[in-house]
Write a structure and sequence with these properties.
Two copies of one chain form a homodimer.
Chain A (H helix, E strand, L loop, with lengths): L9 H13 L2 H14 L24 H10 L2 E5 L4 E3 L7 E7 L1 E7 L5 E8 L3 E2 L12 E4 L3 E7 H10 L1 H27 L2 H18 L6 E3 L4 H8 L3 H13 L3 E4 L2 E4 L2 H9 L5
Antiparallel strand pairs in A: 1-8, 2-7, 3-6, 3-8, 4-5, 4-7, 9-11, 10-11
Chain B binds a DNA duplex (30 and 30 nucleotides) through helix 1 and helix 8.
Chain lengths: ~280, ~280
DNA sequence: CGCCAACTTGATGGCTGTCAAGTCAGGTGG
DNA sequence: CCACCTGACTTGACAGCCATCAAGTTGGCG
């Protein structure tokens, strides 16, 4: 909507607070940046060596092509939990591929309200919102200690003109982001609280599975408030629905540790519009 | 909320019915396709001659570059009100630039629920959701008699590798779609009904203005139900809020004819999170 | 002129937000 | 090592916004 210019003050505060909770906040962030400048951890930074190469940007490339990509994606950045990878308003220079860790992105409204627009994990690309206006329109925050590969965008565009496979795949990655957003709009526009949480859990489970983790058991990196923000619910509602799911025997919840005990009823929640 | 009790079939019906109302439905669509095959209306189909070239794909291109684009974007397609430009599941071949007219896109959930994901007008690009999976994930329907320029995607990618300016601009167009989706997620996740409608009206006004139409006065091409679907509301709520806005003197509503009488309070609705 | 879809408006109810209190877990400092 | 403190979470009571159900009006079209 037209309502997109991000605001001035209030929410920055909220966000800052959250940041301080999760890690050491901005202070930590700056320390780390300084540390990086002193000794950049360029440890084994090649796509060609990366275990994620089939679910990340290099998907489908030949050996020769991946080696070309290596020259563009040459540096990494480490982030501690709570650090910002980028902030709304900062100039856009690069995309980031998540090597390890877990992120959230959120956008701000003028009046201070904000919303989590996504949770990202290994192999996913961050920063595509920044291409349109040459600066970022949302914040990206590490929800656990993380490492990202820096993909300078101007160089990437050069490479896309050379490597057709990469070009097409990059377009697919951007398109997938659009499709993903549509499904969240669907969730926000038509689903009830239980359905939203079920969809959320199933989505996480599926993405963890794709990365070799257990489909039934995982650790939530985000707070109830962040889940609620993402799903258009209040944290109390998230908590209540988790409790209800537990009472029904669908899942077991211990703080941030989730175990899916019976996946069928969760899926059914999404298949049926309502109980009648 | 999730109380969208329209089950697996009702909604498909609604959609079909709507189609038939607005134009001549599928029947008409097929007739038109046939007609196109017999005498393709390739009337003046050059980006270089198009009045929309600055807000559409050719934005920022040199004369020479636009002429190259002309060879790729060589055909148009006319659609009557209610006709589908494409449907979810159809194989993806091309993007479409709207030359004239007005569209909606909507996605379906397995259980039959659907949601309008956007309204598109002249100069905007349709079909980018299809890139990721090689087939469309949503329906695009003309809400008035319309004309689109067909942009075969494989050819476009070839061109993007030749013309750096075009490449960058195309990435910006895709990114803008992502940013737009984020602001709708924001709307759906955090705004109340009045705020949603205000944002909706202001957004339409702004986009009409950018196309040389009146900022204060315009004709809604979509039904209350489609507006509601887009904004995550029921049609009755849309109607009630329109009435409330009219009582307050913000707008005048006569069916689909909207006149904005006092824009300030509409903007204020978006600036203030709440009444306290 | 009659039909039908689109729309408006009213009455009612339910889902989820709000407010409030209390519990739990992890980290810090004595 | 333990007590304490803080933030995250849970749970309850209540209320409000919007959905639902229902009836009636309007406007376009055959």
């Amino acid at each position: 909507m037209g309502a997109s210019s991000e605001g001035q003050r209030c929410r920055n505060h909220d966000d800052g607070t959250l940041t301080q909770i999760k890690g050491s906040g901005d202070h930590g962030a700056k320390q780390n940046v300084i540390h990086l400048t002193i000794s950049p951890p360029k440890t084994s930074c090649a796509c060609s060596q990366c275990s994620l190469r089939e679910i990340c940007l290099p998907h489908g490339l030949s050996e020769k092509e991946i080696l070309k990509l290596d020259t563009t994606v040459a540096t990494r950045r480490r982030l501690k939990r709570g650090q910002h990878l980028y902030r709304a308003g900062e100039s856009f220079e690069a995309l980031y591929a998540i090597k390890t860790g877990f992120f959230k992105t959120d956008t701000l409204l003028e009046d201070g309200r904000d919303q989590v627009t996504g949770f990202q994990m290994a192999g996913e690309i961050l920063g595509m919102d920044g291409i349109s206006a040459e600066n970022h329109t949302c914040n990206a925050v590490a929800l656990e200690d993380s490492e990202v590969c820096i993909i300078p965008f101007a160089q990437l565009e050069n490479l896309l003109r050379e490597i057709q496979t990469l070009q097409h795949h990059f377009h697919q990655v951007m398109s997938r982001e659009i499709v993903r957003d549509h499904s969240i709009m669907m969730l926000l526009g038509t689903m009830r609280a239980e359905e939203r949480l079920a969809a959320f859990l199933l989505n996480l489970s599926q993405r963890f599975t794709a990365r070799g983790y257990s489909p039934q058991e995982f650790h939530l990196r985000m707070t109830r408030e962040e889940i609620g923000s993402y799903l258009g619910l209040k944290l109390e509602t998230v908590s209540r629905v988790f409790s209800r799911f537990q009472e029904e025997g669908f899942i077991s919840v211990q703080q941030k540790h989730i175990r899916i005990l019976n996946i069928a009823p969760l899926k059914q929640l999404l298949a049926h519009p309502q109980q009648p």
